[in-house]
Amino acid sequence: MPIHERRERERADRHRLIIDSARDLAEAEGWEAVTTRRLAERVEYSQPVLYSHFKGKDAIVRAVAVDGFGVLAGLLRGARSGVEGAAALRAVAEAYLDFAAERPALYDAMFVQRVEVPFGTSETPDELRAAFGEFMAAVTPVAGQRDPETLVEVFWSALHGLATLTAGHRLRPDHHRARLELVLTGLLN
Amino acid sequence: MPIHERRERERADRHRLIIDSARDLAEAEGWEAVTTRRLAERVEYSQPVLYSHFKGKDAIVRAVAVDGFGVLAGLLRGARSGVEGAAALRAVAEAYLDFAAERPALYDAMFVQRVEVPFGTSETPDELRAAFGEFMAAVTPVAGQRDPETLVEVFWSALHGLATLTAGHRLRPDHHRARLELVLTGLLN
DNA sequence: CTCCAGATTCTAGCGTTGCTAGGTTATGGA
DNA sequence: TCCATAACCTAGCAACGCTAGAATCTGGAG
User: Fold this and answer.
1) What is d(CA A89, CA B116) in angstroms, rounded to the nearest whole number?
2) Residues of B with Cβ-Cβ distance to A189 under 8 angstroms
3) Is it the case that residue B101 has pLDDT exceeding 80?
4) A155 sits in which H/E element
């Protein structure tokens, strides 16, 4: 086993460590607490090491976001497995909103921060494709004669709107379920 | 006319000038370009003057946001005047999405930045109440036996989701109208 | 007109941020 | 044993939000 392989492995481990530490720190204290100094301290290296792995802080946030899409895809897949039709749609919606509520910092990286993850291009990361695919799988069976992809976009928009406005305390905390019902009946029409 | 009245007037003028300059600068170059130094330079005063009007940069962004809700309320009112029912709903939706698309920086201050404008409390500014009132006026006539306020929250969430995901280039640029139609038919059911 | 108290405004600087140039240390092959 | 290379850190830059304290301006009293 050549040494450069071990080096590469160690480097990959440290890459992961940086991403995980950034996510942990953000989830513990919010993204404003994620400075390159504090992050470097957490991974027990100096600041420049971060820049040998990522082009800048934005790239680190972007990596956390892409990772988050992988997590989300897994949750959506788990939610819709074993159920079909309207029940699957409801399960996916609930899983999505739970994810946004329980991991607000991660959701922030994915959707709110200015990180500009490439969407709908050839460079779109697999994690994003997977998450979108879960949406498609849940929505297509109930689409009827409507375009599934457009319906996914609307479904996703409604959920995203609910998630962000809820996080910003701009919707009545109770009535959460009532809003979800309205979204689902609107979609199922 | 006592001099202290003139002083107060000048002070109010400068208050407005700061808010307007911050908005203009953000709309021209994005919020990341709005630094206290550049803003001070724009209003032709030194930095500390900003802090004699606002508690900090956040307060300035918040003032821009509240102002934005006033603008939005006016646009929504104009859109739904003269039409009724489903047509009014469509007009309001289009006006909202146009506003978000045409003034992304202002929309950002209102909804995306971390500014925490008080919602649904006794301290909620009139501009916010007005904007929400426009939504209520457009939605209530088509609510049927559904709770109008809940329906407004869902309608607003869907529009907000469409607006932010569109701004982040996460929806197909064409199909804009198709998505709007799906939202409206879902709501009108 | 002169002078002063108070309001107004600015200069200068603090601590922190993202990022990087250049020097130091560790490593593995010759 | 030595050295080229890779790995890593120290130190510092420019810009950020914010503020203490000095300087300047203003209007009314003597």
Assistant:
1) 32
2) 185-186, 189
3) yes
4) helix A148-167
